[in-house]
Amino acid sequence: MNRHLILTAAALLLASGAAPAESLPLQSVNKANAVIDAAIEAHGGAAALDALRTVVQKQDFVTWATGQSRRPGPPWDRAEVSNFNAIDLENEIFVNHNAGEGGGFVFDQGVIINGENSWQLNHFSGTAAPMAEPDYATQSGPFIRVTAPLLIRQLQARRQAAHWLGEAEVDGRMHDIVTLVMETGPGLALYFDRQSHMLTRMERALPPFGQVEYQFLDYETLGGVPFNQSLLLFVNGEPNLEIDVLETQINQPLDAWLEIPAALERVGEVRPDEFASQEIDEGVFLIGGNGTYSLFVEMADHVVAIEGTVVVPDAIAELRKHVADKPIRYGVLTHHHSDHIPGAAAYAKEGATLVTFKDNEAVVREAAGDPEAKLQFVDQRLSLSDGSRTIELYDIGPTPHAEHILIAYLPAEGIVWEADHFPVPPTGVIPPAVPVTRAFAEALERLDLEYGKLVGAHSPRVAGPADLATALSRQPANAAAAGGL
Ligand SMILES: [Zn+2]
After folding, report:
1. Which one in 207, 231, 282, 348 has a CA-CA gap of 20 to 30 Å to 257?
2. From the CA of 418, how far away is ligand 1's center (Å)?
3. Ligand 1: distance of its center to the CA of 335 in Å?
4. pLDDT tens digits for 385-407?
5. HEC readout, the chain
6. What is the pTM of this model?
7. What's the CA-to-centroid distance between 321 and ligand 1, angstroms?
């Protein structure tokens, strides 16, 4: 990519000796307004943009599982996803449906965000759950961020918060960069071609994962408004998503997509899952919230922590309310995925030994951010014991999810910990098994483990052998209509 940042706003203004009457922020806002006015004209004009009431779009996705593939490094695993979005901009209604496979999972699911009639649909498990707190801004954000005219409308509506960030040359053409802060999510930097005034590119920073970059391509005009027909998304410079728009309709009523398919079983409400601690056995704590959890096991004179997600620092703080004085001696990282290693930094700070695989050394050291971090590698299995309590770690890889992946087993307590292999919803029906669930069940069988409790990195619910049996016996509800959106 040929990109060269020539001057930042600050450098430019300092160099030009700004007049005292016009402050740096005022110049930045004025310049942003000029760029936004030209962009609105180039994207169909204010009247045509205002006349957009609904957008319905079918897209094909090709995804590259950056940091989420079976191996810890490139080349990343490629997958295909069918995606459908429908948005009613005036009434804040949003419908999404996506179906595909990846990482050993199969999915066919969506949401209907429509005020009090909001639902989470799962065509794979055959269920529809009402949503207690539907969030239009958060749910529609990903679609808006890949659809140029919807971003221009956001910029139009939120221009009072926009700044001119600077200018840059992209692929040999000069661009102005303007910031956009949407209702949710980090700030966006939009690149407008100085000649055509079209949106060609966007960037946003997502610590600790890095930078995301969007390229808007192949504009075609519909109702006087240019829509990008494809989009490329890069994470830290590596391809992550390629969107090919198959069909776009504007200003059609959305009624047909707001109905709950009769085949879906109505199940309990989806509620936000608050951060909490559960003592699932004496001295064994399941701590987390919002779909992400860790397990802490109290030993005679130390604690063993299992799982390395982003909740680890908060989970350690919560642990200290229950176990005040014992140091965390081991931080067990189940696998190398980007959402399962950020906790390495908190464990390293506690002086804990990071338990991982030799193959994952580089990504774990980088996540720990400490060249002195202590690492211990598991070769097939590792036993951690204080003489009275034992934790067995087993590599159950290769699975469809990861080349190497640890499960933890507490034989005396009959507890098994897993990550990303047995999806257990917080409440309600256990979904049919996906390929990873079968691999997990086969591993439990092969290792001949006796257990009563199954706990995992993405559920607050303690499941059991009967739940796993249920998953294995269920057929996908969508088998007849596979792949259809
Ligand atoms: Zn994973």
Report:
1. 231
2. 10
3. 7
4. 999 999 999 999 999 999 999 99
5. CCEEEEEEHHHHHHHHCCCCCCCHHHHHHHHHHHHHHHHHHHCCHHHHHHCCCEEEEEEEEEEECCCCCCCCCCCCCEEEEEEEEEEECCCCEEEEEEEEEECCEEEEEEEEECCCCCEEEECCCCEEEEECCCCHHHHHHHHHHCCHHHHHHHHHHCHHHCCEEEEEEECCEEEEEEEECCCCCCCEEEEEECCCCCEEEEEEEECCCEEEEEEEEEEEEECCEEEEEEEEEEECCEEEEEEEEEEEEECCCCHHHCCCCCCCEECCCECCCCCEEEEEECCEEEEEECCEEEEEEECCCCEEEECCCCCHHHHHHHHCCCCCCCCEEEEECCCCCCCCCCCHHHHHHCCCEEEECHHHHHHHHHHHCCCCCCEEECECEEEEECCCCEEEEEECCCCCCCCCCEEEEECCCCEEEECCCCCCCCCCCCCCCCHHHHHHHHHHHHHCCCCCEEEECCCCCCECHHHHHHHHHCCCCCHHHCCCC
6. 0.85
7. 29
